[in-house]
Design brief:
Pathway: Protein modification; protein glycosylation. It is found in: Endoplasmic reticulum membrane. This is Glycosyl transferase family 1 domain-containing protein. Keywords: Endoplasmic reticulum, Glycosyltransferase, Membrane, Transferase, Transmembrane, Transmembrane helix. By secondary structure, the protein is mainly α. The protein is built from five helices and three strands; from the N terminus they run αβαββααα. A three-stranded parallel sheet has the order 1-2-3, sandwiched between helices.
């Protein structure tokens, strides 16, 4: 038995959660935590550890919350547990995000089509 999930089990596992927690930090300050994208794909709001450029992915109070310390993370988790309206607002923020296919069509499809014709 291993701690790794089969690829087909991963979306099911995320579907059982209410909140994603990202402890990712970046030494370069320019890489984004792909785990957060997995959480968003499962329509999970996120509590994410703050670092340079995280705001490109997590907008505090809109699709997640950003924390600096373990105490702040604990406060955020408790707040979301007792404040359903705040949790639902974050969840709605995740649902309203542009999906990959929409982004592709809006940003790259025309360029690729023009280049290939």
């Amino acid at each position: 038995m291993t701690i790794w999930l089969e690829s087909g089990d991963y979306p099911k596992f995320l579907g059982c959660a209410d909140l994603g927690i990202s402890l990712h930090t970046s030494t370069s300050g320019i890489d984004l935590p792909m785990k957060v994208l997995d959480f968003y794909g499962g329509e999970l709001p996120v509590c994410a550890r703050n670092f340079q450029c995280l705001d490109e992915l997590v907008q505090h109070g809109n699709n997640g919350m950003v924390f600096e310390s373990s105490a702040e993370l604990a406060d955020q988790m408790f707040d979301l547990l007792v404040n359903e309206d705040k949790y639902l607002k974050l969840k709605e923020g995740v649902r309203g995000m542009t999906r990959w296919r929409e982004n592709w069509i809006n940003c790259a499809a025309d360029i690729i089509q023009k280049a290939s014709s």
